[in-house]
Amino acid sequence: MKCLRIPVTVAAVACCIALAMPARAQNQSSAPAKAQGHAPTQKQLDIKAARAERKAIVGQNMDLTPAEAKAFWPLYDQYEAKMDKIEDRHIREVRDFARHYASLTEADAKQKLDETVAIAQARIDVQRAFIPKFRAVMPQVKVTRFFQIDNKLHALVQCQIAQMVPLARSAGSSESGDL
Description:
Elements: H1 9-20, H2 23-28, H3 33-36, H4 42-62, H5 66-100, H6 106-135, H7 140-164
C-alpha cells in the first residue's frame, strides 16, 4: 500500500503562518507585492512557500502522465485559487474567535458557529463544482486520488488548528477553554 508522502512540518507550518498573519497581510497575500508598491512581508513569502509546498505534495502523489498533467495543473490552479479564498475566510474567523473565545455572548457564539458551518459548506460547494471538471480531464481513480490528497492535507491543517484553539466560553465564565 502506498502512503501519502507529506512532510510532517507542512500542516504545522501552514497553520502557524495562517494564525499568525495580520489581517492586512492576509488580504494582500494573493496580490503581487510589487503591484502594491512595497516589498512582500515575510508572512506573505511564507504563505507563498506553504502553498507551493502543498502543490509539490499533490504533484508527488498524483502519478500523472504528461497528457494528464497538461490538463490537470491549470485546473488545479483554478481550484486552489477558490480554496485559498475559503481558507483565507477561515483564517480570519479562527483569528477573530481566538481573540474573543473567553467572552462570547450568545449572539457572538451563534454567529461564530454559523460562519464555521458556512465555511465548511463553501469548501464542499467548490469540491462539487470541480469534480466534473477534473473528471473531464483524468480517469476517475485519479480524480478520487486528488480529492483524497486534498482532504488529507486539509485534515492535517484542521488538526493543528483544533489543537491550538480553545473551547468557547461565556463572558465571565470560570470554565476551562481546553480539552
